[in-house]
Specification:
Helix content: 25-40%
Radius of gyration: 21 Å
Number of domains: 2
Number of helices: 11
Distance between the termini: 14 Å
Length: 325
């Protein structure tokens, strides 16, 4: 149904009442739709931000181009709100953002005119919570540890200095990273079994508690009730209701971004440190772009901003991703 709606919208732009075929014939002379109809979702660590330095120098020109075209850039990350807000201020970003692997969606007050069911007001945002509260995750981590018989070291078990050592974050950033609400990063220590065997047991124990374990960079993450894709769908639905048909893109670097990739029209995978793309998964329509982290991010944006195919041939309708009501 969504794809049919989108065809009708596009044919109306051309003034045609005769359907998709006429649109394809006349597409070469038709102007491209406004780029403000596009929305970009992005991971941070290893994607927009360099995995080691956490800088985004190589992506600056692309960020400027997106800003000039009024294309929203939606941060969709495993980081905390305390980590994301200073970065948004530095970037001059005023769009919604998703924290802690889909744990919550923060929308600036007044950003949308449409109602936001299930949201609450907090510190100048409308907040939609989807994750499990952090205290429950901490309790569950201890239960999983007992069941599996291995040591699971979560962020709350680590000092700020420990986090700095493992992540390379600055001290102030490590403090912000500990301010968690919906996601507990952890390490597996002193396992008598191979890591993959232990991880499988940890996953199964988490599932029995209604939770999920994700692999993401240096840490595993214990979360519950959500993922990046679910949070993205909620936000896409908001844009859809307010702006009508939109097209979406997502840029990431790891399997934790798969849920986000599955709900956008154009998913892009950047290279990881050392070169090469993450392996072991396939997503329909996934484009693997050259470039590590922010350099690859800039390449993805370059592709996103190119004139879309119907300027040079028949328009290819892509189904819109599923929306949450």
């Amino acid at each position: 149904m969504e794809s049919l709606t989108r065809i009708r919208t596009l044919t109306t732009w051309n003034g045609s009442q005769t359907g998709h075929a006429v649109w394809a014939e006349e597409a070469q002379d038709a102007p491209a739709p406004a780029l403000r109809g596009r929305v970009l979702f992005t991971d941070l660590d290893g994607t927009l931000l360099d995995a080691d330095t956490y800088r985004y120098d190589a992506a600056r020109p692309a960020l400027d181009q997106l800003r000039e075209r009024s294309i929203p850039v939606i941060i969709c990350t495993g980081k905390t709100r305390a980590e994301v807000e200073p970065l948004r201020a530095e970037l001059g970003n005023h769009d919604p953002f998703i924290i802690e692997n889909g744990g919550a969606l923060y929308i600036p007050e007044g950003y949308f005119k449409v109602p936001l069911p299930g949201s609450s007001s907090r510190d100048g945002y409308r907040v939609i919570e989807m994750g499990v509260p952090y205290p429950r995750l901490r309790h569950a981590l201890r239960r999983i540890e007992e069941q599996v018989g291995v040591s699971l070291v979560g962020f709350a078990d680590m000092t700020v200095e420990d986090i700095v050592k493992v992540t390379g974050l600055a001290h102030c950033d490590a403090e912000r990273a500990r301010q968690r609400e919906y996601d507990e990063p952890f390490l597996i220590k002193n396992s008598p079994m191979a890591l993959q065997m232990t991880l499988q047991e940890v996953r199964e124990a988490a599932q029995r508690l209604g939770l999920t374990v994700m692999s993401n960079g240096r840490f595993f993450h214990l979360v519950g009730g959500t993922d990046k894709g679910r949070a993205c769908r909620v936000l896409i639905d908001c844009y859809h209701k307010e702006r009508g048909a939109i097209s979406t893109a997502g840029i990431g670097d790891s399997p934790s971004d798969i849920p986000m990739f599955k709900v956008v029209n154009w998913p892009f995978l950047v290279e990881r440190p050392g070169g090469g793309h993450a392996e072991g998964f396939e997503v329909e329509g996934l484009t693997r772009v050259p470039g590590i982290g922010p350099a690859g991010w800039a390449e993805a944006v370059k592709k996103l901003l190119r004139p879309i195919p119907f300027q040079h041939g028949p328009f290819i309708v892509q189904p819109l991703p599923p929306f949450m009501c």
